[in-house]
Amino acid sequence: MTKQIQLFNNIAPKAFEDIEDDYFLSNEPIDNPDAIILRSAKLHDMTFAPETKYIGRAGAGTNNIPVERATEAGIVVCNAPGANANGVKELAAMSLVMASRNVLDALKWTDSLKGQDDIAAKIEAGKKNFVGRELRHKKMGVIGLGSIGGRVANMCIDFGMTVYGYDPYVTLRSAWGVDSRVKYTEDLQTIFSECDLVSLHVPYTEENHHMINSDILAYAKDGLILINLARDGLVDLDALEAAIESGRVGTYVVDFPEEKTLNMRNTINIPHLGASTPESQENAARMVINQMTDYLENGNITNSVNYPDVNLGVCRSTARIALNHRNIPNMLAQIIDFLREKNINIATLANDHRGEWAYTLIDIESDITEETLEKMINIDGVVRARIIRPN
Ligand SMILES: NC(=O)c1ccc[n+]([C@@H]2O[C@H](COP(=O)([O-])OP(=O)(O)OC[C@H]3O[C@@H](n4cnc5c(N)ncnc54)[C@H](O)[C@@H]3O)[C@@H](O)[C@H]2O)c1
Ligand SMILES: O=C(O)[C@H](O)COP(=O)(O)O
């Protein structure tokens, strides 16, 4: 049966080129989609349809998705880690240079010369008003050393800067990619008290809400350049405005403008361009489309933010059962007992958990009816049960 895929936002069409004919993808509303593929569209007010089992974020941040509600409905939410990281890193390079060299004010002034005489002479006379600083030998702080932060830290080493990194949750994989010359610190105060420039590369979560606040800004060196290409809610704007007014923060560069930042002095507002390149969009869309087809066709989970990654390869057995369930005692025993009672032989089983949730894939050697599967949903703790058959 044709699988219905609800698209939101502009998803790079090239990413669909390799998709099989049995997928129908549309930005027009679909009543009961099997999956949703989106970028920054906000899903918090959306009621999920019963058939929806997958949400793919063609990008990094998933704070636009009600992940907890999706989890309880047995919907796997995945993103595209690192797919747009180069795009954001390059925008960070632009932000660092733009803020250090007064580029925005200089461009506005240059533009104001339109229609005047002796433009070349006026430029030579006026350029002294826009003298800036070079990045080399300055101290740079990177908060969050994941896909983007790691790249930004390494880039700043290449600029000849002294780089400090802060990320209490860094994964081993990310840490391996960070240049050994990056000075790792375990406290945020060091970043603010040492650095001339600080760049934020963390997700927006409840815990990270207003992580940049008056307490931490009190440690900032005068004239700090603060770059936020990560998310709006990470910075307490009242505290930031006070720090700008006092001169503690010299320039704020933000990729998530709002009324307040548009009216704030010494602020460079970028219209959320971090991932707005065909390269990043195509990378991210291809990644989630591939992950989605593998989930719908084989039940395999890759790059999930709510369920564990579990993979049994291409489905070649008589049938495969996919179960989204709570991570509670006796779960697997109940599932295995159920199949034993139905005289269904298990060929292979894969199971893993992520916090309070778990996922089990079972390849079986005899067929299972939809009616029997329905009964599996009644096993305490199971929130979704699905049969997958080989193509
Ligand atoms: N401007 C844009 O267009 C754009 C594009 C991509 C991503 N983003 C934003 O950037 C964020 C980071 O993206 P990524 O691809 O690097 O994600 P990532 O998951 O690879 O890295 C995030 C890192 O932040 C760390 N972290 C989490 N909380 C932290 C805290 N309180 N202090 C320090 N470190 C903390 C994590 O351990 C992780 O290493 C995304 O969540 C998204 O909000 C913005
Ligand atoms: O989290 C992300 O990946 C970025 O904010 C990019 O968002 P976009 O896909 O809407 O450009």
Fold and architecture overview:
It is built from 13 helices and 16 strands. It has 391 residues and is α/β, with parallel strands linked by helices. The protein folds into three domains: 1-84 and 277-306, 3-Layer(aba) Sandwich (Rossmann fold); 85-269, NAD(P)-binding Rossmann-like Domain (Rossmann fold); 309-391, Alpha-Beta Plaits, CATH 3.30.70. The protein has a seven-stranded parallel β-sheet with strand order 8-7-6-9-10-11-12, sandwiched between helices. Helix 2 packs across helix 5. The longest helix is centred in the last third of the chain and has 21 residues, at 278-298. The mean pLDDT is 97. Nicotinamide-adenine-dinucleotide is lined by residues 59-61, 81, 84-85, 88, 143-149, 166-170, 174, 201-204, 208, 211, 229-231, 255, 272, 274-275. Residues 59-61, 81, 84-85, 88, 143-149, 166-170, 174, 201-204, 208, 211, 229-231, 255, 272, 274-275 line the site of nicotinamide-adenine-dinucleotide. It holds the Pfam family 2-Hacid_dh_C. This is D-3-phosphoglycerate dehydrogenase. It comes from Suicoccus acidiformans. Its EC number is 1.1.1.399, 1.1.1.95. Residues 320-390 form the ACT domain.
